[in-house]
Design goal:
Elements: H1 2-34, E1 40-45, E2 50-57, E3 62-71, E4 84-87, E5 89-90, E6 105-107, E7 115-117, E8 120-123, E9 126-129, H2 143-147, E10 158-159, H3 162-171, E11 176-180, H4 187-198, E12 209-210, E13 216-219, H5 226-233, H6 237-243, E14 259-261
């Protein structure tokens, strides 16, 4: 009887452990099923040098609408941007050059005196970032790199205008990034790319961006105010507030990484 009592206890204890493991498994399965996809998906077309930001549609259970279109400069043929499916992750703050911790400036040490800002990791050392600068100051971005936006000009990373790279950093942590070569010969996309290039004045780093259905946005950046956005957009502050009823634009400095409608 003594042996049988010990045996029954072991059986009971093992049954409890198995039941706990089964319940934990099904709980994890249901929790994973409950996790919704990220709000945005990033598609990088290396043929057209365009970035498409698609928004998730719960009713259709798919990324059904392209909400933003950004011009970009991917890697040159000798130093190509990797293709495939990745997950966007913010880079660690480079405290030496960004003591305020805003995620703004970072030094690319492998390329000497080269500084970029608003970086987001694609995979490994490949990131989304602003045009490179010889100093941590926008005034030192070369005219050549400004003119080359929309052309293959990087060492493998994907360059965007600073406001747009900041928007990705602030809004796309965890987004799926799909990088591919499109079929090309798409007149609509070719004209879109050309129109986007015209949006950037020769010495201006903050172009507005053509969006789906010809809506335009300004992507907020560090130190923006309602007045500065209105000045860049060429419209009144009242008009910006009217176009953006769901965005708080009342603060002295507006939150970074917003898409503020200007049309």
């Amino acid at each position: 009887m003594k042996y049988l009592g010990k045996f029954n206890f072991k059986v009971f204890f093992c049954t409890i452990l198995i039941a706990f493991a089964v319940l934990t498994f099904f709980h994890m399965q249901s929790a994973e099923a409950a996790i919704e996809p990220h709000k945005y998906q990033i598609r990088v077309d290396l043929t057209e040098n365009l970035i498409f930001i698609d928004e998730w549609n719960n009713d259709l259970q798919a990324y059904a609408a392209t909400e933003h279109v950004f011009l970009c400069s991917p890697g040159m043929y000798a130093t190509p941007t990797p293709t495939g499916t990745f997950t966007a992750r913010p880079r660690a703050i480079d405290w030496e050059y960004d003591p305020k911790g805003t995620g703004e400036w970072e030094r690319f040490r492998s390329w000497g005196h080269c500084y970029v800002n608003a970086t987001t990791t694609i995979t490994g050392a490949f990131v989304f970032h602003s045009p490179p600068s010889s100093r941590p100051d926008y005034g030192y971005v070369s005219q050549r790199d400004i003119d080359l936006m929309g052309e293959r000009s990087s060492h493998g990373c994907v360059r965007l205008w600073p406001r747009q790279s900041a928007w990705i950093r602030m809004n796309c942590n965890g987004s799926t990034v799909r990088i591919y070569y499109g079929p090309g010969h798409n007149d609509d996309l070719w004209y879109l790319r050309e129109d986007l290039k015209k949006e950037a004045p020769p010495k201006e780093l903050w172009p507005n961006t053509l969006i789906t259905e010809k809506t335009k946005f300004i992507y907020t950046y560090f130190g923006d105010t309602l007045e500065s956005l209105a000045e860049m957009a060429g419209i009144s502050t009242d008009r910006i507030i009217e176009l953006n009823p769901d965005i708080d634009l009342s603060g002295q400095n507006i939150k970074v990484g917003l898409a503020v409608k200007i049309k």
